[in-house]
């Protein structure tokens, strides 16, 4: 069986795509260069000193660049559609497109439903009025769907991510399997790594590691930061001084050094990360309890059963999260019993738990400072004074008056912070800290491939591009949300 080329029978489109990309780049570069040249056609507007430039050549270049960019996007769409239909007949891109068919379907359905009902979906719906926001959202959801379909349901992977296939060590993308069985996928679409494992399958499995850890760790960090930042900013005084000192103390440590200390085997064996999990993971319960109590404080007949049910379920999830194998801490010299195995809903891998705790611990102080600053500003507004005049309690004002009016900056920072967390996870994996050496996470994969980067770059470039695209998508999504929140 022959090796696959990148575009297979669609190679005749390659020159057209190249021309479209070159035209777009040249037009935009010329437009940027032209903006530095003083324009002799500047003309005044009205009687003031405001001036505007005649569009002329600059406008023409902008239109040419836009047409070239749209043509390149259209051609990429043709590659994807042809790949879905033709599969490996359209080369490596065709094989990738065919394997990712569930992701394409999920993206199309998500965008179709979201655009149809965007006027009813609040800030999320307004995101689809922003081109930048939609592009970022599409990139993020691509990897979310890839992680779910590939990591949970194994629908996308072509080979087992840990299996070593004889004769496939450091093979280039599109190399056919030697002595492949009929039921095997016949190619390594993105080549093999230095241990003869399929790079594409490890890439998809690695996306699930990121999708599991980065958003949830960021969410827990926000729960810690919000729960402590609101009272610090609202009350001020000694409470603010004490909490701000703790936050600054943590932020004073270099992040990488702090991560290294938390995930080293010697620290892990002492059980310190498990004790930290006990403390940090309790904050969502505190937040939920205070939120419901402050909202339904005047309705005790509803508040009490609601708190019992909500906190009962949340407490069960909390104990399941911090317990592993029936123990919360299982150090060589000490064992703290946890939730019985029969009631434990899930067990988190010890390496993942350590990384999760480390990310929450490092991100929480920054979130605290953002929330504190927003609370200091918003508590002086008239609607907060009106709520105080009505006799509302402090926690009601913090959670139901201040926090909703701070949602714009917090949502934007949440998206950006997921990107930072993704980079931190990649950094930890690259240095071999926290996760197992066989983990398919992108940082570990990049580290394994960098040793032969000069000879076989595909093993490191593929996860690096995936990491870049996800972080870029999160940044674009944050830009779109910021743009729309400012209009809100």
From TrEMBL:
Residues 207-478 form the ABC transmembrane type-1 domain. The keyword rRNA-binding does not apply. GO terms for biological process: peptide transport; protein transport; transmembrane transport. Its main location: membrane. It comes from the Bacteria. Keywords: Cell membrane, Membrane, Transmembrane, Transmembrane helix, Transport. The chain crosses the membrane at residues 12-37, 64-87, 99-118, 130-153, 208-230, 242-263, 275-294, 306-328, 348-371, 414-435, 455-478. SUPFAM superfamilies: MetI-like (SSF161098). PROSITE patterns: ABC_TM1 (PS50928). It is a multi-pass membrane protein. One of its GO terms (cellular component) is plasma membrane. It is found in: Cell membrane. Belongs to the binding-protein-dependent transport system permease family. This is Peptide/nickel transport system permease protein.
């Amino acid at each position: 069986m022959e090796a696959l080329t990148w575009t297979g029978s669609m190679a005749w489109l390659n020159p057209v795509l190249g021309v479209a990309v070159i035209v777009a780049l040249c037009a935009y570069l010329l437009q940027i260069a032209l903006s530095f040249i003083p324009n002799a056609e500047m003309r005044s507007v009205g009687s003031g000193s405001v001036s505007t430039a005649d569009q002329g050549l600059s406008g023409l270049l902008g239109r040419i660049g836009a047409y070239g960019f749209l043509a390149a996007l259209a051609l990429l769409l043709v590659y994807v559609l042809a790949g879905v239909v033709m599969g490996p007949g359209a080369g490596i891109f065709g094989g990738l497109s065919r394997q990712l068919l569930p992701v394409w379907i999920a993206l199309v359905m998500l965008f179709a439903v979201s655009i149809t009902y965007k006027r009813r979906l609040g800030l999320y719906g307004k995101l689809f009025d922003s081109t930048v926001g939609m592009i970022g959202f599409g990139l993020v959801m691509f990897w979310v769907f890839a992680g779910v379909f590939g990591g949970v349901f194994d629908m996308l992977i072509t080979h087992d991510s840990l299996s070593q296939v004889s004769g496939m060590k450091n093979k280039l993308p599109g190399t056919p399997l030697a002595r492949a069985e009929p039921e095997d996928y016949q190619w390594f679409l993105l080549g093999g790594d230095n241990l003869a494992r399929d790079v594409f399958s490890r890439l998809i499995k690695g996306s699930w590691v990121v999708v599991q850890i980065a958003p949830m760790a960021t969410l827990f960090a926000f729960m810690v930061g919000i729960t402590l930042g609101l009272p610090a900013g609202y009350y001020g005084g000694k409470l603010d001084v004490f909490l701000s000192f703790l936050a600054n103390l943590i932020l004073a440590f270099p992040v990488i050094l702090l991560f290294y200390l938390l995930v080293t085997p010697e620290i892990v064996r002492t059980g310190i990360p498990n004790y930290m999990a006990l403390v940090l993971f309790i904050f969502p319960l505190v937040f939920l309890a205070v939120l419901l109590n402050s909202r339904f404080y005047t309705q005790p007949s509803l508040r009490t059963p609601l708190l019992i049910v909500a906190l009962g379920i949340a407490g069960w999830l909390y104990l399941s999260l911090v317990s592993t194998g029936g123990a919360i801490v299982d150090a060589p010299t000490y064992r703290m019993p946890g939730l019985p195995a029969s009631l434990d809903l899930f067990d988190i891998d010890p390496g993942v738990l350590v990384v999760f705790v480390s990310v929450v611990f490092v991100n929480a102080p920054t979130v605290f400072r953002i929330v504190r600053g927003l609370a200091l500003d918003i508590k002086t507004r008239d609607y907060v004074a009106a709520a105080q005049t009505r006799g509302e309690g402090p926690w009601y004002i913090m959670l139901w008056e201040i926090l909703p009016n701070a949602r714009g900056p917090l949502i934007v920072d949440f998206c950006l912070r997921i990107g930072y967390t993704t980079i931190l996870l990649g950094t930890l994996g690259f240095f071999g800290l926290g996760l197992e050496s066989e983990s398919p996470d992108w940082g570990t994969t990049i580290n394994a491939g960098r040793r032969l980067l000069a000879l076989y770059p595909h093993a490191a470039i593929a996860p690096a591009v995936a990491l870049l695209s996800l972080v870029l998508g999160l940044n674009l999504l944050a830009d779109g949300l910021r743009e729309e929140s400012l209009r809100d």
